[in-house]
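Endoglucanase, Micromonospora pisi. Tokens?
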Amino acid sequence: MNRLRRLATLVSATALAAASAVLVAPSAYAATASFAKTQDWGSGYEALFTVRNDTSSTITSWRVEFDLPGGSTIGSSWDAVRTSSGNRHSFANQSWNGTLGAGASTTFGFTVSGTGTPTNCTVNGGSCTGGGGGGDTQAPTTPGNLRSTSVTANSVSLAWNASTDNVGVTGYNIYRGGTLATTVTGTSGTVGGLTAATAYTFTVRARDAAGNLSAVSNQVSATTAPGGGGGSTPAAINGQLRVCGTKLCNRYDQPIQLRGMSTHGIQWYAQCVNNNSLDALATDWRADVLRISMYIQEGGYETDPRGFTDRVHDYIERATARGMYAIVDWHMLTPGDPNDNLSRARTFFTEIASRHKDKTNILYEVANEPNGVGWSSIKSYAEQIIPVIRAQDPDGVVLVGTRAWSSLGLSDGASETEVINNPVNATNIMYTFHFYAASHGSSYLNALSRAADRIPMFVTEFGTQTASGDGANNFTQAQAYLDLMATKKISWVNWNFSDDFRSGAVFNTGTCNGTSYAGTGVLKPAGVWVRDRIRTADDFPTG
Ligand code: IDC
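Tokens:
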């Protein structure tokens, strides 16, 4: 058929549709296809099908099928790809007319030799007239394991596991905050047009050939990367960290010191980790880093691996959205041999590192406080878990606990030399030291000072009280540590950001039942003291 004839056909079809009101039942879930003769010469006719998307979301393909009675055959056809088998005829969209927005329509045409008209018409597997009459109503299975695979300053890429369906899955809808953002045909996609350093949530639904939508997938949060140099948060300024000699260096290869807070055990004090408290930590306290303390025992990870892993994902996103670094603390404590939880650690860190590998603000703390176990066992554990993390996230800094509750061995009567003489066989790692100022006096301080001149040290936990996290504060001794750590640029994190009754929990009891976390009115003395020391100006060289 020549172009003029086709144009004339289209015009007459439009007129015909308007005049005789070729109506189809509106359908909430399907495309529809309506048949109309556009010319009839007795021994044959020319016809046009109008395919309309009656769903509320875009479809990216369509296929109309129908029977013609024996004796009626199709001659030529246009604007669709035809395949015929016996008296069943199938018309699929061309590459250029498969995508139909909500409410949009398109046409295809053909000529028939004979007088028979289409019966048993389906479009995308459902009835051509929409809802009634046996259209497919079975929804595809829900897409699984939705995850963010990478972020830029203005886009988030996602991937998920495929859905299945009886009439075939034709594509997926990606929703941002519940609103349709884009549609794709494969099991991955990118949402663009986003704002830098902003947290978003995404879900996905599968579409089938009949236009049915699956249930909503798991929700994933992702935070866009900081904008090009414009950010002023600690994570935006410093970017990906790496160990340089004995120091922690920023993206300008300049040594920096991070200062911040550790959560309490997230199995007990999740109520203290919320948007209000984290806003206060980032903007009122001006913290650089949040340590996410996930116990393994004592009601922690081992009781609900999925739930605790998801909680850590969530806290990472919230820290990221506020421009803070996030230390993922594998808070093993009892039993004290980290090897006892090695297989759990493999599972956990594989998922955490794989999900967050494209972020530049994650540090991995692989063993909170080994105890009752020698340095060689800790070193062996570290040399097994570090490659697990590196396989996913090659450039994340890893923090390794030391003997006797991360005292560099001192609380077992040993010293830092056991680490210096027999370091972990890995790069881009630091060793941790924990102190409680009312329990750990100058011999501990001196060991930290000596060690920091030889190996990279990070104080991932300290308190101003006794090692119980309770009792009287010794601010004088604590200040001596802080002075040392400022001089040597040793990063530090204080225990703990909760309203536990003990003196080392910064908030007054009951604070986490409310919504106010800023200022000093909600703080115990240790909280007032440490907030004052976190919120002083950072020294982050960018030259
Ligand atoms: C303490 C908590 C306390 C909890 C206890 C359970 O303050 O509420 O009942 O753990 O094990 C550490 C540990 C850290 C301790 C903290 C204070 O890493 O888990 O928290 N501490 O005792 N090492 C030295 C002190």
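Residues 7-29 have pLDDT under 50 and may be disordered.
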